[in-house]
Amino acid sequence: PAPRGPPRQTKPVTKVGYLTRLYAIRTWAVRSRTTNPDEIYPVEIMDMLQDTLARTDISTRTKIAYRSAMLWQLREQQSLTDLDKEALAKLEEWAPWKLPKEKLRPKTIRQADVELLYDELLLRRGQWAIRTSHWLKAGLATGLRPREWLAAKWSSEDSHTLHVQCGKTKLSTPAFLQNANRNAQRDEPFGTGVVEREVQVAKGFDRMIVDMHLRDLRTAIDFTAELSEIEKQFDKYYHQCRAHLYRACQKIWQGRKMYSLYTMRSQFSANAKAAHGSAATALLMGHSSMDSPSAAHYGKASQAHVPSRRTSTFAGVPTAVPGQTQADASAADQDL
Questions:
Q1: Where are the beta strands (DSSP E) in 112-253?
Q2: For 254, which DSSP code?
Q3: Strand partners, 154
Q4: pLDDT in tens, 225-260
């Protein structure tokens, strides 16, 4: 059909959106090719396009937005290389809205997949592969958000209790406020006046692996530095582990399946719901209630690794929950 008129000018707010998406695409491409967050790694538009085509952890809507941003970048360039022209042709032919609905990143992880990840990271043998394995196991043992490890520390009164500063602020009163201490005078880098919760860690292997993860963090991060420097070091640590986990997933599933450090929190939720019920799980995870949208977002009891809590002990789930009475446990049995 004949063109209707001159091409429309891109609005400033749209340009900002395009630039934001291009930054996200480029960051993903760089981090999938290097483990050094400070390294300046050159990536071409074709690399960015191929990565976007291969990703299974983003929705069709996101792919459409990424396609628009890359098209805008190429069409804004004064001159195009042969590689740019090839990328432009592929982008114009690519119609992600016609693809079948993809399965997003799994919220939980199958027990067999956990073992595959552990084995792959063990084969890599590097320091960061070991640290990533420890983080995965510690996340499954505690259900902590990745950010909450920054100020997590063992209780001086109970060697199996972690003091955790909640990584998410709720508008309503959180369920864990019965165990919170807003005026604690301890030496966390975040200072005082924060909402905390207590996380019980199962004895034996879980306690050991959580302690190893905490030692890893304190070996790599200088917690005597200024808060901004501590957070910067923690972010570098997180991105190193994230990159190794991404590579392990790519090696095992070739882009068909992708897990994150946050996946272990959702799997902890599934295991805890099967072991203790939804109400106790909300307390363990720091949710406002068992019916909150946040609580519903995570894994279900049917997705737990061990199907029967009466005959087996769940990995990563304490045998008792602070504040839970026998009557509460019986009610949880009826819920299941």
A1: 153-154, 161-165, 196-200
A2: T
A3: 162
A4: 998 999 999 999 999 999 999 999 988 987 778 899
Asked if residue 96 lies in contact with residue 63, where contact means CB atoms within 8 angstroms, the answer is yes
Q: How many whole angstroms from its chain centre is CA 158?
A: 28
Instruction: Decide: 288 and 282 in contact? Cβ < 8 Å.
Output: yes
* Cα 125–chain centre separation: 23
Nearest Cα neighbor of 71 from 32, 14, 125, 111 is 14
On the question of pLDDT at 139 being above 70, the answer is yes
DSSP string, 212-231: HHHHHHHHHS-TTS-HHHHH
Burial pattern 17-40, b for ≥16 Cβ within 10 A else e, equals bbeebbebbbebbbbbeebebeee
Q: Sheet containing 196-200: give its strands across.
A: 153-154, 161-165, 196-200
**Closest by Cα among 64, 44, 43, 42 to 53:** 64
Question: Residue 324's CB: how many other CB atoms inside 10 A?
Answer: 17
Residue 168 identity: K
Output DSSP code: residue 179. Answer: G
- Is the model more confident about 214 or about 202? 214
- The answer to whether 246 touches 258, Cβ cutoff 8 Å, is yes
Average pLDDT on 122-136 reads 91
Pairs from 255-259 (Cβ < 8 Å, separation ≥ 24): 255/54, 255/55, 255/56, 256/56, 257/56, 257/106, 257/113, 258/55, 258/56, 258/57, 258/105, 259/105, 259/106, 259/109, 259/113, 259/117
Structure tokens at 14: 């749209």
Cα(268)–Cα(278) distance, rounded to whole angstroms?
12
Please give the Cα distance from 168 to 107 (Å, whole number).
19
